[in-house]
Amino acid sequence: MRAFSRAYGSSPLHLAVAAVAFVIAGYAGFRALSKGPVLSQGEWFLGAILLHDMVLIPAYSAVVIGLIYLIGGRAAREGTPISRVRLLVLNHVRVPAGLALLALLLFFPLILGLSEGGLMGLSGLSTDPYLPRFLFMTLALFAISAALLAVRLARGRRGGHGGSPPADE
Q1: Distance between CA atoms of 83 and 169, rounded to whole angstroms?
Q2: How far apart are CA 79 and CA 90, in angstroms?
Q3: Taking phi first (over 0 means left), then psi (-120 to 50 degrees means alpha), and beta for anything else, what does residue 124 get?
Q4: Domain for residue 83, yes or no?
Q5: DSSP readout, the chain?
Q6: Number of domains in the chain
Q7: Residue 96: is its pLDDT beyond 90?
Q8: Are the C-beta atoms of 41 and 33 separated by less than 8 Å?
Q9: Per-residue pLDDT reduced to its tens digit, 29-67
């Protein structure tokens, strides 16, 4: 088992999960291509790539740089290394914010009520609950992240195990 892990670079479980993910992605791609004209789907795919690479990457990179300056404090402004605790805080802000923004990107017509007629016509349901549910989900993501951060910081101060960084400043 160790020889495999050394040669592969990770555990056999990682290989199995990656293989299953590739099979699911291949199946989804096959199903998508069999549903409609390939050119139309190719245009959407190319548009999504361009939107992501030319608009979204610069936008969320700017946000991350802003967060680094905000959370990193004087060290970030002076160009010195940021303390491990501040980096931990940064990651506990970035992850729930990224997940909330991903959900907003995927469901913004429903969250903002822009597809009321379409959803009502197809399902008989209203888009009214989407905004409160999105806000609750965002609040829950940040609350869970804050609780995990508090646990990690407390374990770090006590010298506990689990890879928590020491509480240095």
Answers
A1: 6
A2: 16
A3: left
A4: no
A5: -HHHHHHHSS-HHHHHHHHHHHHHHHHHHHHHHHHS-HHHHHHHHHHHHHHIIIIIHHHHHHHHHHHHHHHHHHHHHHTPPPPHHHHHHHHHHHHHHHHHHHHHHHHHHHHTTTTHHHHHHHHS--STTHHHHHHHHHHHHHHHHHHHHHHHHHHHHHT-SSSPPP---
A6: 1
A7: yes
A8: yes
A9: 888 778 777 677 778 888 888 988 999 899 989 988 888
| Cβ-proximal residues to 11 (8 Å cutoff; 6+ apart), any chain | 5
pTM (2 decimals)?
A: 0.64
For 84-112, b/e burial (b = at least 16 CB within 10 A) is ebbebbbebbbebbeebeebeeeeeebbe
Residue 25 located in a structural domain = yes
Give the C-alpha separation, 8 to 123, whole Å: 48
Pair 67, 98: CB distance under 8 Å: no
Domain that holds residue 9: 1-35
CA dihedral over 100, 102, 105, 111, signed as positive or negative = negative
**pLDDT value at 151 more than 90:** yes
Name the residue type at position 38.
Answer: V
Q: Give domain status of residue 27, yes or no.
A: yes
Structural domain contains residue 125: no
Six token digits for residue 138: 């965002």
